[in-house]
Specification:
heterodimer, A: mainly beta, 7-stranded mixed sheet, 4-stranded antiparallel sheet, globular, B: mainly beta, about 0% helix
Chain lengths: ~110, ~120
């Protein structure tokens, strides 16, 4: 089970936001890699991957987005929040089948 | 990478439905594939996953014994057969491509399944 907090994150433009994701079990795979990724979903759109293997950014993702953590505790940090960042963010684990998702955190502008 | 789902309709409780996903832009037979669903206004749920050769599958407890995932690598297609449908199965169903690093890297646009009498 993946537990995200907070479920709603109001933030002022230009400020930072932090989203936590905690897993009920270790997300370290038998191959030694940690399979935790972050997705962004805007209203009416399909999800889009931002970060994989805890901290690796996808092509085109601004370096304002950073992922960190290990084992069971992970964090998505967004610095200098922009209007375009308004979305729901999900963590997802890729160790067990099928993959499971956090409940989602809604990022809103104050 | 292009993933296009089809087959979503309104179906009565207890009914059956088969979703399809047409894949293009990558070597389909090299990748595991997923079905992920999202009830309107709610979060994401991993429904099922199938290995690249079709030899191994996994299901969420909520659909085990009712849904069957399959693929035809010769047709670059993924399928989800859904039986004994319930109102709680109402959702957008996304076809999604796995990546070798334990994550989903591409998603389709989704198809809406509505279970209602």
């Amino acid at each position: 089970v993946l537990t995200q907090s907070p479920l709603s994150q109001p933030v002022t433009l230009g400020q930072s936001a932090s989203i936590s994701c905690r897993s009920s079990r270790s997300l370290v795979h038998s191959d030694g890699n940690t399979y935790l990724s972050w997705l962004k979903q805007r209203p009416g759109q399909s999800p889009r991957r931002l970060i994989y293997q805890v901290s690796k950014r996808d092509s085109g993702v601004p370096d304002r987005f950073s992922g960190s953590g290990s084992g069971t505790d992970f964090t998505l940090q967004i610095s200098g929040v922009e209007a375009d960042d308004v979305a729901v963010y999900y963590c997802v684990q890729g160790v067990g089948w099928p993959y499971t998702f956090g409940q989602g955190t809604k990022l809103e502008i104050k | 990478v292009h993933l296009v789902e089809s087959g979503g309709v309104v179906v009565q409780p207890g009914g059956s439905l088969r979703l399809s996903c047409a894949a293009s832009g990558f070597r389909f037979g090299d990748y595991n594939m997923h079905w992920v669903r999202q009830p309107p206004g709610k979060g994401l749920e991993g429904v099922s996953i199938i290995r690249n050769d079709g030899g191994l599958t996994g299901y969420a407890d909520s659909v085990k014994g009712r849904f069957t995932i399959s693929r035809d690598n010769s047709k670059n297609s993924l399928y989800l057969l859904m039986n004994s449908l319930r109102s709680e199965d109402t959702a957008f169903y996304y076809c999604a491509k796995d990546s070798p690093n334990g994550s989903i890297d591409h998603w389709g646009q989704g198809t809406l399944v509505t279970v209602s009498s």
